[in-house]
Amino acid sequence: MARYAMVAAMLTLVATTVDAQNTCAATGVMAGEAFAVSNCAVAIFPDQKSVTFWFNDSPITPREQEAFEASAYADSAKDGKDRTMLLVMFCPGGGQAEASAAAIKSMDLELTHAKSAAAGAQWMVQAQRDFKVDKISGDVSPGGKLAGHIIGSRSSDGRKYAWDLAFDVTLPAKAAASGMTCRK
After folding, report:
1. pLDDT digits (tens, 9 = 90+) for 67-87
2. φ and ψ at 48, to 5 degrees?
3. Which of 32, 87, 95, 123 could make an S-S bridge to 182, C-beta 3.0–4.6 Å?
4. CA 172 to CA 184: how far, in whole Å?
5. How many domains does one find in the chain?
6. pTM of the entire structure?
7. What was the pLDDT predicted at 17?
């Protein structure tokens, strides 16, 4: 009987650990080059109630995640190779702690594609014109939970860009050194 209790306790611990994992996906097109990434890290700038997401094509190491959480910066190359990645910075609650789709007015979006350096771009994109927040919920504070789905598109120099971002994450307990300034 004690053995069954121990196994049940271990399974509960594993299930709790799995539930605590961040889940993210970003798909789309960068200058005609398709992409799909499923690794992410997130940083929070609590003074402004802003977050920065790093969607990446390869697993993010614990060291990279720790550095990103502290700086909200990720290098677009690793070991001399370009990465397919997106850095997305926005104010989920428009400067308030509670996330709200209507409060998100703009996002800073940086894209890089491993297959094409020319596909990279960086913009400040505007809600309704460039993207739509399909859904978002959560608490924009250290250790809070944040989940959402954002889709968008834009053209630049005749090249098509589109992104579909989905995330369900726990925000870091520590503050990043930088982030987006949110209007309250």
Report:
1. 999 999 999 888 888 899 999
2. -105, -5
3. 95
4. 22
5. 1
6. 0.87
7. 38
